[in-house]
């Protein structure tokens, strides 16, 4: 894969992490139209606050690091963002206000800003059209870089992302950067991005923890004229692919669950029920154990919507109906077989309303606990 | 410990579980005043629906089993509750409507009602004033029986409980049965119980999963005249002790966290913030690893209250201040030492409001995942 026209990137190992690439730079040949969707966590990190406030401006560069979230870092954190923006602006000959930044990693640790600033000049000399090194530099506990591309005849949409844990309820610790060469007005790009995020990153869950740093940014270099409804489709496709890749690479996760909720009052209700199931530690443990313990699904939905009528509810694991309008039915051995695969569907019908949604989730394993019990401070 | 005057109990191994006591019977010499607080889960089990509807009546007997939740069991589940109530009513010479029931264990499995009915006669012959066998018969993954007593001069309050997992956000899979000999009008007993539950069982969390079966029932045999404000204190004390015992015996749990939230707008806001921290898988993993990763605490609170001002927030682990009004402070090695004990306090100041609350929670360990990944269906 190659970046669309008008953008290039570089990556390096700056030493923020003990090993591996941890710093990425993306540079636009000319100011790019910029849209962004960010965490709504009140503990939002300094880079989130900075980059959120740049919406409406055209952007010349993005600096992203892994290995440190620069979150809950107080005045030092704000100063660090200012410093990295100023440093790359000086190199590119633009204003620091034309720069956006992103960070991911442990919270509450001072960002070693000198390691970032000292590398930007050399990175500029190594810019290329290959997005993979940049995608790799974002990785924390990810086991592979995440890239997705959708062509649309006249132009291209290409996105990179990092995920792994803290992916919920609203696109928590994940970063995604999407670039298109198709020209699009800023307000339209913001709307298209928000809708694409809502249907993708906002419908995945790893551990129901929402991060201080999640950011999805979208840039248009405007090099190509394209149909905006086709851009919408391509953007949706790229976001959906990246979101699914994130769940597949969930920390410690061994399975991808597609939780389909149907018959809810509206889409929001369907999403809420799906996320409640996705967030149930008990059900997620059962999935890890390939145990079709569908009672935990009902229990999770019943504590999400306390007016749910069990007589209206159906639960299927794969195509095996396990609970039919108030009564347990179904063959446990068939459901267990379905759950033995890397990926399976859980279908929950909750009534006869028009609301339906799919939420993607991962299982909860001892490896997840091990990863997250290790000393990071 | 002995039951207060006017009540006795028995327990047996009926075979619902593969081994150990799993059936308990409590009999009142004369109809006892009855109050109850139950799960609000829409998937509430048949015994919950039955016992909830008995509120307002005086009660002659309680039948409780472990090893099977009789939840999501449809018409069979309703029939089973009817059968067990009718069976003990026939033995005691009362109406089935004078009987309450409770079940705990796996969801969605048909209750083997013959094992219960066949044992009630023999259990009646073995009634005694020792509450411990009854408390043991409630145990599922509990490692010890839970009992608490508070004397109040003229009378006694004694309670038994079972817990272990699925303990949140509103007293999920837990059963507690509390008996006093102090006379109390039903409406007053209901109010006292609801308040005691709100300040105890509703402020604990094991895995943020709410069960289909949680029930707290309180009975007054009326044998003693006592001061009702002292009864209130004794009831609060018993509920608080049982709630803490449940968290200490959390599935796989190795530590008890006392999460104190201060300075919130009101008590409800303080409880919500405390429960958000208690529900964070990431923070609970850090606790298991004795890692003072306080950023996960801020992140959990910030996704609970999106208007939280970090400049107003303080977080302390034990007495070590880690985050002070927007800035990271504190010594990691001191906080890690605090977390190395079986029990520690996490103090979160979130503003200068009058709302404060304490929420008790357990850590998330690989043992929890292992327990809950085992095949139970």
Give me the oligomer status: homodimer
Q: How many domain regions of chain A?
A: 2
Level-2 CATH architecture of the largest domain in chain A: 4-Layer Sandwich
CATH topology of the largest domain in chain A: L-amino peptidase D-ALA esterase/amidase
Radius of gyration of chain A: 21 Å
| Number of helices in the DSSP assignment of chain A | 11
Chain pair sharing the greatest interface: A-B, 74 and 74 residues
The SS-based structural class of chain A is: alpha+beta
Name of the CATH first level of the largest domain in chain A: Alpha Beta
Give the uncertain stretches of chain A in residue-range form: 166-172
What proportion strand of chain A?
A: 25-35%
Q: How far is the N terminus from the C terminus of chain A?
A: 37 Å
Helical fraction of chain A equals 25-40%
Mean pLDDT of chain A: 92
Based on Cα principal axes, name the global outline of chain A. Answer: globular
Secondary-structure element string of chain A? EEHEHEHHEEEHEEHEHHHEEEHEEH
Q: Report the sheet with the most strands of chain A, covering strand number, pairing sense and barrel closure.
A: 8 strands, mixed
How many DSSP E strands of chain A? Answer: 15
CATH-defined superfamily of the largest domain in chain A: L-amino peptidase D-ALA esterase/amidase
